Amino acid sequence: MPEVLKAPLVVEFPFTRSLGPVQSAFLTGLRERVVLGVKTGDGRVLVPPVEYDPVTAEEIRDLGSFVEVAPTGTVTTWAWNHAPRRGQPLSTPFAWVLVRLDGADTALLHALDAPGPDAVHTGMRVRIRWADERTGAITDIACFEPYDGDRAEPAGHTGEFENPVTGIVAPARLDYTYTPGRAQSAYIHALGDRRIVGERCPSCRKVYVPPRGACPTCGLATSEQVEVGPRGTVTTFCIVNIKAKNLDIEVPYVYAHIALDGADLALHGRIGGIPYDRVRMGLRVEPVWTEGSRHPDHYRPTGEPDADYETYKELL
Amino acid sequence: MQPLRDVAVVAFAHTGHLRTADELSEVEMLMPVLHEVLDRTGLKTADIDFTCSGSCDYLAGRAFSFTLALDGVGAWPPISESHVEMDGAWALYEAWTKILTGDADTALVYSYGKSSPGSVRDVLTRQLDPYYVAPLWPDSVALAALQAQALIDTGATDEPALAAVAARSRNSETNTAAQQDYVVRPLRTGDCPPVGDGAAAVVLAAGDRARDLCARPAWIRGIDHRIEAHGLGVRDLTDSPSARLAAEKAGAFERPVDTAELHAPFSSQEVVLRKALRLDDDVRINPSGGALAANPVMAAGLIRIGEAAARIHRGESDRALAHATSGPCLQQNLVAVLEGDPR
Hints:
Low-confidence stretches of chain B: none
Structural class of chain B: alpha/beta
Radius of gyration of chain B: 19 Å
Distance between the termini of chain B: 24 Å
Oligomer: heterodimer
Mean pLDDT of chain B: 95
Order of helices and strands of chain B: EHEHHEHEHHHHEEEHEHEHEHHEE
Distance between the termini of chain A: 34 Å
Low-confidence stretches of chain A: none
Shape of chain A: elongated
CATH superfamily of the largest domain in chain B: Thiolase/Chalcone synthase
CATH architecture of the largest domain in chain A: Beta Barrel
CATH architecture of the largest domain in chain B: 3-Layer(aba) Sandwich
Number of helices of chain A: 3
CATH class of the largest domain in chain A: Mainly Beta
Number of strands of chain B: 12
CATH class of the largest domain in chain B: Alpha Beta
Number of helices of chain B: 13
Number of domains of chain A: 2
Largest sheet of chain A: 5 strands, antiparallel
Shape of chain B: globular
Strand content of chain A: 35-45%
Mean pLDDT of chain A: 94
Radius of gyration of chain A: 31 Å
Structural class of chain A: mainly beta
CATH topology of the largest domain in chain B: Peroxisomal Thiolase, Chain A, domain 1
Strand order of the largest sheet of chain A: 7-6-5-8-9
Largest sheet of chain B: 10 strands, mixed
Helix content of chain A: under 10%
């Protein structure tokens, strides 16, 4: 068995999220160093505030229900994180904490900056350490820190602010090690030798290119390797008129389904070496490999007569 | 309340423990399990009235991996099929409901997860509240550790007791578990689930069809699932009212069970569940080893139902409770009650 192919795969995206009236007031408040909760119908104060009562599902969006709470509070539970991970609030060892701020009935999750686990306990008093630069996000609270002073008295803010934040951008990044699996690894290994190798279903005998390891019709593992092409037939195509970002190909160009000789499934590729408006169904093509490329750059006409429709109609 | 039809788990198969299946794609990992579970019943894909699967693309970072996995079923001519972005236990719930409606007499349920390509601790942060919680990237072990500390604070458990749960699950020595390093204190390596890949599948069948396909079907007497608030600071992390309510609705408290398969990825969560589900020392807990022995995310819950059913098939249990969980700190819980015919 050839070596397992591996490659880094980064999935990264900035989520732009709009805020409802409650989240907007809370996060704007953090920007202004004010912590707001909401009061539920039965008088509990929820911090962080939500738009619906988690017990009764009653809607909470009346501005009159905002209640300012103190930036000081009590740890309700904690966990010592000796090895901070990317994106977490502190890069030095810290405690995760749930903190019930003074005036609130529920607890907020954040980090506590403390010298070590022996300095942390449930019931300890803490206060918010504000971030120097605040934008209206949960990270405007840099972390909590131990606090042995008096309970701070909130000023009774109403929840109305100038220039309230209406959205957040939350970047997310996840790192993977991609492995293509047995069948696709074999396909990629063969491409390295400029060969296109599919796999045959042991039951229906169809040859799949590229192979994915299973015959989707029969639900069986494909394993018999079959070299196909290199020549093939354009079964259908489209003309691309919009330039893709980061793609150095002049438009318009033709993107086609190509049934390689011996394959029972068309793959797709770009057609070059012929004006876009002369590409047609049945056109015979062959792959063009460029130096250092791991797959055909495009396909070009072979000059053979067009294939008869009957020979590829099942592959459309 | 009695279900409208008698529906049973008639077959179960799974991959066993895989630290990594990096030489296999999802479908290549899943397909042998599908073949095995169908072989046990003699059914072909065409004999299955409904197929339902559970998986999550975030685990391996592959978009629409469930459509590629479906290649392993053989979905032509077109089959009646559905998918949940959840543990396969919830796919089983959908299939069970489908059979109860009378639209299907048989169902294939499968799920799979490859956690090894990514960092599952970080991947799972993406299921959290995106406004107040996810921007802090609290990983799955950190959240479970907050729950464990809250539990320790109540006096319901302590670190040696957690080590004993971990040791029992893995048939190892308690002393060894108690001396392992902290991952996020108070949870040590042994208190946390192993990261791995795996797949599982079950076949469901109704009434006489079930009796034809299995010598001793594991009849589903009830299933229910319940969810708690997403806000961690709103919940009492030391209790599981959702698991208790699901168990009550599933009929778990009507008679004692002899076996319970609990989906408790962290040792401390077993303590919470035992109490919520009123499981005393007479009940055999997780004879399979549970999620502390193998935790293929998205399949580990379905495996609990499958393992409980398999014990009934083998005559090792007469009435078993199977539990699956989802979300941080046991946020969502599913309970199924399975029974074998009297012997």
